[in-house]
Amino acid sequence: MPESARAERAREAREARRQQILDVALDVFSEKGFHDASITDVVKAAGVARGTFYQYFDSKQAIFHELLDQLIENLRDSIVGVDVSEGAAPVRQQLVTTVTGILDAVDQQRQFVRIVLRVAVGLDEEVDAKLSEFYGNLRAFIAMSLRRGQMLGLIRECDPQLAAVCVLGAFRAVVEEYLGGDDKVDTHRLALGILEFSLKGLLA
Amino acid sequence: MPESARAERAREAREARRQQILDVALDVFSEKGFHDASITDVVKAAGVARGTFYQYFDSKQAIFHELLDQLIENLRDSIVGVDVSEGAAPVRQQLVTTVTGILDAVDQQRQFVRIVLRVAVGLDEEVDAKLSEFYGNLRAFIAMSLRRGQMLGLIRECDPQLAAVCVLGAFRAVVEEYLGGDDKVDTHRLALGILEFSLKGLLA
Amino acid sequence: MPESARAERAREAREARRQQILDVALDVFSEKGFHDASITDVVKAAGVARGTFYQYFDSKQAIFHELLDQLIENLRDSIVGVDVSEGAAPVRQQLVTTVTGILDAVDQQRQFVRIVLRVAVGLDEEVDAKLSEFYGNLRAFIAMSLRRGQMLGLIRECDPQLAAVCVLGAFRAVVEEYLGGDDKVDTHRLALGILEFSLKGLLA
Amino acid sequence: MPESARAERAREAREARRQQILDVALDVFSEKGFHDASITDVVKAAGVARGTFYQYFDSKQAIFHELLDQLIENLRDSIVGVDVSEGAAPVRQQLVTTVTGILDAVDQQRQFVRIVLRVAVGLDEEVDAKLSEFYGNLRAFIAMSLRRGQMLGLIRECDPQLAAVCVLGAFRAVVEEYLGGDDKVDTHRLALGILEFSLKGLLA
DNA sequence: CATGAATGAGTTTTCATTCAT
DNA sequence: AATGAATGAAAACTCATTCAT
Could you point out which of A12, A189, D74, D121 has its C-alpha 20 to 30 Å from the C-alpha of B172? Predict the structure, then answer.
């Protein structure tokens, strides 16, 4: 079936082009922000014509939303639960590994940080909803983990919802502060710091 | 001195008008964001003509910056240190009172939250600098308090800088989550939650 | 009649104020041009309120027109004819004196030059008409003098109208070139140059 | 090379469009002046959208400056020197031909006159500089010619600089007076008049 | 009569989007 | 499918003029 083969190749080319524009847009948006970045900036950087852009994306909003979806999905993928089954590694060690892993993933793609923590904040309702959903899921996941921990007697009595907000807030703040710029960081140290803080608090 | 009296009244009227426009702009910006709010929106809501706006403010940026300055100053004013001198109230109680007070202040003016935590984020370099400075001061204050606590043996061994980032992040997240909408909240409960979390952590 | 005396004083005060604003406007317009000079510039320089300005002049155009009228009248006054009656000074000497006198008058008030030769040019139809009339009168005066000179056998055969245009053009160009800036000039030398040129031409 | 051919056609179309807008702007500016002509006037007359204008020109100022550059270049091109080599036509005849030619060129494009002699006068510093340079070059050219004439014994003793100012002034005045409106003129007669005046003066 | 705050029509300019080639 | 010239709605901002005090 030579025709379907050709069609296939065309589809792949289209997909590649599409992703290329998305990649470029990530750079442009993360550097200039949403409003200060123009479609002109994107198409120039991508080396395509204005019209071409609109063959792949419906609007400036649309590409940003898609971008955000990709970012969120990537972030989600780098987050995995803790195995509490017998024979698994000690919980604390698992936590350190997990949190370090997330920080490493974020560290790899700092544009993510800028987009999710700066550019996308307060943009429009749809974006807000997406971020809310993402954070909500994370919070729910954390809260659930805490509840399970409470049942296992590992976590003290507390409002898991509120506690989850605090944990996530601390984490986000560390990311924003230490991974918002271009400085190198010791992700292991940060992960330890966040976990010690969240688990043991600051009292002597 | 009737002349100076009249001049005084005029000056006051001007100041009142100015503040009125600022107040209206606070509403408009907090509801629509910076880019989606036009000067037309502001002047319509204020019931003045376009030109009037420009008699009081140089530009759209200018009024937003001024607004932000006011908000930050207000926030700063609601934050006070903890008295560790002898005869002072127990530190823990003071902390609860302080944090509850801050939450109450923010609760009173929820537009503040939307502006500072959403609208102003990632707007432009000057705004970024202002927020950075504000958060930096807060962090420095917290870090210093932690260091003092360490010397008094109250706070455990840790990187005060990193810990301050976590504390502030947890606090910010709580504000954003619980005071970002229009729901009523129990600020005392939130303050307790944040403090317990920050001081004792979550382990059983 | 104390009342009329008071009224008189008031009238004089009004007149003085009016002239003061005109004087200031002359400075402002000659420096900034018509469009780039704002009413704000004028009232600030005059030390009066905006409303006051409009009590004395109907509009920005109006004050400029009035200004131009004054300037033109002043220029006209510094121009006098040549006495060809018996016993009068030699015509050539009279001409030198007259032209030098005009140049001196203009030299005294260089703002005149800027207003009449730059600012007022191409402003609007009414201004154009005024300048046209002024130049037309001058040309007519010169043409008439030339015709009289022809009858006396002093001036050669030529189209007096066209010749008047040339004479006036040469004069204007000299004023513009040598009195347009702030450099000191030798008006006598300029007058001689213009006259030699106009009377004898440039051929050896 | 079909591609370069298409690109070539596109480039030409762009250039044509650009020139069309310039032509229209020449009309609009020469009729209304710079300040009274709005971009709206230009684009309406050109039959294009607002945005199209800004694809070709950076600003209202920019198109005017470009327009002025074209006009000045055109004027310059219509001016040629006088050939004093042996075997050349008599100088006087050459001068008549040259001056008549310039007047004819100007006659052809009366908008030039209005723009250069009215609209552009006193507009802004850059425009002033351009006109100054143009007139300066002309003056310098005339002054140099006069100096050469003096060396050949054709031109009498005089300040060539001042004489050049007079010659140019006379010429300009004739252009302004006779070619400023829409009346037909006999350029040959005007050229003769200017030359007779400049060379022989008005004395009998 | 003086004041100066208020007005709002009018201007230039931007930029996401469309569409003929 | 790619191009990029054309579009025009919408925005910020100015400033001559008015009018209540």
Answer: A189
Residue D87 DSSP symbol = T
Distance CA C16, CA A113 (A): 69
Q: Could you state, in chain order, the average pLDDT of each consecutive group of 10 residues for chain A (204 residues)?
A: 71 91 96 96 96 97 96 86 73 91 91 92 93 95 94 95 98 96 95 97 92
Instruction: Kindly report, residue by residue over C60-97, the tens digit of the pLDDT.
Output: 999 999 999 999 998 888 887 666 667 777 888 889 99
Query: What domains are defined for chain D?
Result: 1-58 (1.10.10.60), 61-200 (1.10.357.10)
Residue with tokens 């109907």: C58
Please count the other Cβ atoms lying within 10 Å of the Cβ belonging to residue A160: 21
Query: Which of C115, C80, C73 minimizes the C-alpha distance to C95?
Result: C80
Decide if A65 contacts A126 (C-beta within 8 A): yes
Four-residue CA torsion sign, B46, B51, B56, B57: positive
With b meaning 16 or more CB within 10 Å and e meaning fewer, what string describes D144-173?
A: ebbeebbeeebbeebbbbbbbbbbbbbbbb
DSSP character for B58?
S
- Minimal CA–CA distance to A145: which of A99, A181, A109, A110? A99
Instruction: Name which of C61, C113, C131, C197 to mutate to probe chain D: the one with the most chain D Cβ atoms within 10 A of its Cβ.
Output: C197
With 0-12 / 13-18 / 19 or more C-beta atoms within 10 angstroms meaning exposed / middle / buried, residue A2 is exposed
Q: If you count them, how many residues does chain A have?
A: 204
If you count residue pairs, one on A and one on B, with CB atoms under 8 Å apart, how many are there? Answer: 145
- Cα–Cα distance between B29 and A166 in angstroms, integer? 28
Q: Which residues of chain B have pLDDT under 50?
A: 1
Lowest-pLDDT choice from B32-46, B86-100, C159-173, D74-88: D74-88
The pLDDT score that the predictor gives to residue C107 is 93
Taking the C-alpha atoms of residue B40 and residue C14, their distance in angstroms, rounded to an integer, is: 42
Residue at token pair 């403090």: B195
Cβ atoms of A91 and A154 within 8 Å: the answer is yes
Q: Which residue of B119, B156, B166 is in closest CB contact with A204? A: B156
CB D176 within 8 A of CB D167: no
The residues, any chain, with a CB within 8 Å of residue D159's CB and separated by 6 or more, are C193
pTM: 0.91
CA distance C193 to C154: 19
Q: Report the pLDDT value the prediction gives residue B129, as an integer from 0 to 100.
A: 94
Nearest one of C81, C101, C96, C105 to C196, comparing CA atoms: C96
For residue D169, give the nearest of C190, C176, C204, C186 by alpha carbon: C176
> Picking from B86-95, D28-37, D50-59, which range would have the lowest pLDDT averaged per residue?
B86-95
pLDDT of res. B1: 46
Shortest distance, CA A177 to any CA of chain B (angstroms): 8
pLDDT bracket for residue C6 (50, 70, 90): confident
DSSP-derived 3-state class of residue D180: coil
- pLDDT of C142: 93
Burial level of C124, CB count in 10 A (0-12/13-18/19+)? middle
Q: State which nucleotides on strand F lie below 7 Å from a protein beta carbon.
A: 1-20
| Residue A75 CA: distances (Å) to CA of A163, B44, C95 | 21, 43, 94
Pairwise CB contact (< 8 Å): D203 & C169: no
